[in-house]
Design goal:
Number of strands: 18
CATH superfamily of the largest domain: Glycogen Phosphorylase B
Distance between the termini: 16 Å
Oligomer: single chain
CATH topology of the largest domain: Rossmann fold
Organism: Antarcticirhabdus aurantiaca
CATH architecture of the largest domain: 3-Layer(aba) Sandwich
Enzyme class: transferase
Largest sheet: 9 strands, mixed
Strand content: 15-25%
EC number: 2.4.1.21
CATH class of the largest domain: Alpha Beta
Radius of gyration: 23 Å
Protein name: Glycogen synthase GlgA
Keywords: Glycosyltransferase, Transferase
């Protein structure tokens, strides 16, 4: 059975990326092809996206007055993705990022910008492209969360809907005064709609309206049912019962491949893992680190409280004193950025810091560092540890969410059974993190033990193969109901 899906997302790799959402939205369509599922992906026409549009791209829909200005949908296939781009300059032609300006402040009209994306998704789902109607609409995160809401509150026939929460912390909550501008019926201003403690809740509405809700790991799906992890939505999520499922993310193993990666100094496989030393030397040069045999621990992340990077900054001096070095790539909280820059100033040849994000650099870090640190306080799935597994950059992660689902701790039993793929710690405190770093360094000093962990990590399947099959089964179960 051939099945069609409309995916609606605010960012899609390789067209635009700020986080893991883009990687998922970019890679899942290709992984679903082997299951007889064709995906068309709708995203906003940000300047960087429009710059790559073929001048001959077909306009498949237009409206002269769409959320305050003219809009059209362009269709083309790029990078193997069947792409639909919502070109609405009054909403998306901005000089900053997709969600905020150069000053880091959210755009004041974000509610309308992403309501428009959701409304466009609903219109496409109902045949606005001249008759093409998907069997399933799959909306991602709060920016696309109103797509199932518009469909649920429409009198027209609609496809089945899936809504995926990539991070419950970002909910898209806006003042109630925006509701009249959304084009929803009055009945949507209710507990069964978008009303959320007197305001408009985009994510809340999507959770309620979708036929099925997924999140990006089984453990996170359980954590968000608790008052501690539910971010105020645990009651609603518990009410969804068996409509909530956790499906762990995969990665695009053609993009993230140490065997073929064009941006690293030396390609390698699990059998030739010792060739990583060339990448390690290149990384030392790139970050001005002293050349030595000790391990390099790395961070590639948003530098935020959620990610636990304040804890790494706190123990940076101890990491150096234990004989390791540290590489940090990322941006975020100014205090955490400052703490890492101060650590670099204290240890300029032992700690390297790059404020900002660079995709090729992240590949080089994964290929050259010995371990990747992901000490998140909560983590829906996490992709950084999956890149680490793929590249033999041994993950050290906290025991939460998708980190717990994807990394096997190198405890005595796991090492004896030769299944360990990294190091897992908890609770998320500096003491527990430092103890895990100590265990990692002990393993590193035992070459045979370290190579076993490293090669087991590289053998772990981080592709979309298993997860795409679960999404395919979910789609078909919805259609069979």
């Amino acid at each position: 059975m051939t099945l069609t899906v409309l995916s609606v997302a605010s960012e899609v790799f390789p067209f635009l990326k700020t986080g893991g959402l883009a990687d998922v939205a970019g890679a899942l369509p290709g992984a679903l092809q082997s299951h007889g599922i064709g995906v068309r992906t709708l995203m906003p026409g940000y300047p960087v996206v429009m710059a790559g549009i073929d001048p001959g791209a077909e306009t498949v829909w237009s409206d002269e007055s769409f959320f305050g200005g003219p809009a059209r949908i362009l269709a083309e296939t790029r990078h193997g993705i069947d792409l639909l781009v919502l070109d609405a300059p009054h909403l998306y032609e901005r000089f900053g990022g997709p969600y905020s300006g150069p000053d880091g402040v959210d755009y004041p009209d974000n509610a309308l910008r992403f309501a428009a994306l959701s409304k466009a998704g609903a219109l496409v789902a109902q045949g606005a492209l001249g008759g093409w109607r998907p069997d399933i609409v799959h909306a991602h995160d709060w920016q696309a969360a109103l797509t199932p809401v518009y469909l649920a509150f429409s009198n027209a026939p609609r496809p089945r809907t899936v809504f995926t929460v990539h991070n419950l912390a970002f909910q898209g909550t806006f003042r109630y005064t925006v509701f009249p501008q959304l084009g929803l019926p009055d009945s949507a201003w209710s507990i069964e709609g978008v009303e959320y403690y007197g305001d408009v809740g985009f994510l809340k509405g999507g959770l309620h309206a979708a036929d099925a809700v997924t999140t990006v790991s089984p453990t996170y799906a359980r954590e968000i049912l608790t008052s501690e992890g539910g971010m105020g939505l645990d009651g609603l999520l518990r009410g969804r019962g068996d409509r909530l499922v956790g499906i762990v993310n995969g990665i695009d193993t053609s993009v993230w491949s140490p065997e073929t990666d064009p941006v690293i100094a030396k390609t390698y496989t699990a059998r030739t893992v010792r060739e990583r030393r060339h990448n390690k030397r290149a990384l030392e040069g790139e970050f001005g680190l002293r050349r030595e045999d000790g391990p390099i621990l790395a961070v590639v992340s948003r530098l935020t409280w959620q990610k636990g990077l304040d804890l790494v900054a706190e123990i940076a001096d101890e990491i150096v004193s234990l004989g390791a070095r540290l590489v940090v790539v990322g941006s975020g909280d100014r205090l955490i950025e400052g703490a890492f820059l101060a650590a670099h100033a204290r240890h300029p040849d032992r700690i390297g810091v790059r404020i900002g994000y660079d995709e090729p650099m992240s590949h080089r870090v994964q290929a050259g560092a010995d371990a990747i640190l992901v000490p998140s306080r909560f983590e829906p799935c996490g992709l950084t540890q999956l890149y680490g597994l793929r590249y033999g950059c041994v993950p050290l992660v906290s025991d939460v969410g998708g980190l717990a689902d994807t990394v096997i701790d190198a405890n005595f039993a796991a090492q004896r059974a030769k299944v360990a793929t990294g190091f897992v710690f908890g609770p998320v405190t500096t003491d527990a993190l430092l103890e895990a770093v100590g265990r990692l360094l002990d393993a590193y000093r035992d070459d045979a033990k370290w190579r076993t962990i490293q090669t087991r990590a590289m053998a772990f399947d981080v592709s979309w193969t298993a997860s795409a099959a679960l999404y395919a089964a979910l789609y078909r179960d919805l259609l069979n109901e």
